[in-house]
Write a structure and sequence with these properties.
Layout: H1 2-12, H2 19-33, H3 43-53, H4 58-72, H5 76-92, H6 95-106, H7 121-124, H8 131-153, E1 156-158, E2 164-166, H9 189-212, H10 224-253, H11 263-291, H12 309-316, H13 332-339
Antiparallel strand pairs: 1-2
Helix pairs in contact: 2-3, 2-4, 4-5, 5-8, 5-10, 8-9, 9-10, 9-11, 11-12
Keywords: Cytoplasmic vesicle, Golgi apparatus
Pfam family, one: ANTH
GO molecular function: 1-phosphatidylinositol binding; clathrin heavy chain binding; phosphatidylinositol-4,5-bisphosphate binding; SNARE binding
């Protein structure tokens, strides 16, 4: 720690980290991705984060070294440990580190796609597959599936509440360097809100698809790094599914206004609902299989709501006018008053009925009446 602190003082005064700090970072990468790495101990990950925080350009060096180790890996276990390190760094770093790491992934300084595993018989041109090759192929399939998951995961951010949210790319500036005006006017704000919601739902479905395909078999789950990687993916899928159900509920509340959307958005909504009908049963089965494994029994699984085609069709139905009670239509006069914005709160014309009341008087009572034209009731006084 003292040595790292001394290195941070020197690195802060220069744009390029000194060699000692870079050597410390590379040694920490080796400890994470070596044959003994990949376990549940994250102390080496925090060591890397501490070292990188002491130098502005160290994260670029870190990304390129991890990429080099991943491309040089030929065994599935070695490639998996490098991918797992990227995933842990993405989760453990602060939002500035996360933003920088995603930026380096976008610039291809950090690459997590297509590890070069040499265990695939098809890649080697082998026609006959032995039992041992089948195990190796399963390990390679998990590595490539995990790589695809990380590629998609790079397009998500961790919010301040600790939830996963899909990241939107910033708008492309104009030729003069100024940001473009807002793409939606007040008349199309409804489309803007719907587009944001549909984008979130589609991103959730893509990441959940990759998580479902990553379920390891008995041979792959024996690897410590594979168990750790799948455990992270499984816990993240819970948060992604929570975000999906929240968005689906919001879509259900807006189902009456889906018909008012533009045609591309209506098509997107249809595709999301169609995919939900096929994906939610698979997700429910996926969680059932995970519960049967010893490593995932203690987790608190979400309750998956299966979307049926009937529910999807009901959400896509255009709103129909609400009929009047007893099949009666609204009176024209009431409709005219409602359209004029009158102050009356009654939907129909009100009528007042005056009933006749007979009053009996005793002998001592006297009725005081007015002239013949006044028919109002007046007080009765005893004698």
């Amino acid at each position: 720690m003292d040595h790292a602190g001394t290195g941070s003082t020197k690195a802060s005064s220069a744009a390029v980290p000194d060699r000692a700090l870079l050597s410390d970072i590379e040694a920490a990468i080796e400890r994470c991705t070596g044959s003994g790495g990949g376990g549940d101990d994250d102390r080496h990950v925090h060591e890397i984060l501490f070292l990188v925080s002491n130098a502005p350009g160290a994260i670029t060096f870190l990304s390129r070294r991890i990429t080099a180790r991943l491309e040089a890996a030929r065994a599935p276990a070695a490639a998996l440990r490098s991918l797992l390190l990227v995933h842990r760094l993405l989760r453990a770093g602060d939002r500035y580190f996360e933003q920088d790491l995603r930026g380096l992934w976008a610039s291809r300084d950090l690459r997590v796609d297509a590890p070069r595993c040499s265990c695939s018989p098809l890649a080697a041109g082998v026609a006959y597959v032995s039992a041992g090759a089948v195990v190796a192929t399963g390990a390679c399939a998990f590595v490539h599936g995990y790589s695809a998951y990380l590629e998609e995961r790079m397009q998500w951010v961790i919010s301040q509440a600790g939830n996963l949210e899909p990241a939107r790319q910033p708008p492309t500036p104009n030729h003069d360097g100024k940001p473009p005006p807002p793409p939606y006017s007040s008349s199309s704000s409804h489309d803007a809100d719907a587009e944001t919601l549909l984008f979130k739902l589609a991103m959730c479905q893509r990441l959940l698809d990759l998580a479902i395909q990553l379920l390891p078999d008995n041979n792959t789950s024996a690897c410590t790094a594979a168990r750790s990687a799948f455990g992270i993916v499984l816990r993240e899928s819970f948060k992604v599914y929570d975000a999906f159900t929240e968005g689906l509920d919001a879509m259900l509340l807006r189902s009456r206004s889906l018909a008012g959307l533009s045609k591309p958005l209506r098509v997107s909504a249809h595709e999301i609902l169609k995919k939900a009908c096929a994906q939610t049963p698979d997700l429910k089965e996926f969680y059932h299989k995970c519960k049967r494994s010893n490593a995932s029994k203690s987790l608190e699984y979400p309750l998956v709501r299966v979307v049926t085609p009937a529910q999807a069709s009901a959400m896509e139905m255009e709103p129909k006018p609400i009929p009047e009670e007893d099949g009666q239509e609204e009176e024209p006069e009431a409709a005219a008053e409602a359209s004029d914005g009158g102050g009356s709160t009654f939907p129909r014309k009100m009528e007042t009925t005056i009933s006749t009341v007979w009053v009996e008087f005793g002998e001592d009572d006297q009725l005081i009446s007015g002239d013949g034209d006044d028919h109002s009731l007046k007080a009765v006084q005893p004698n």
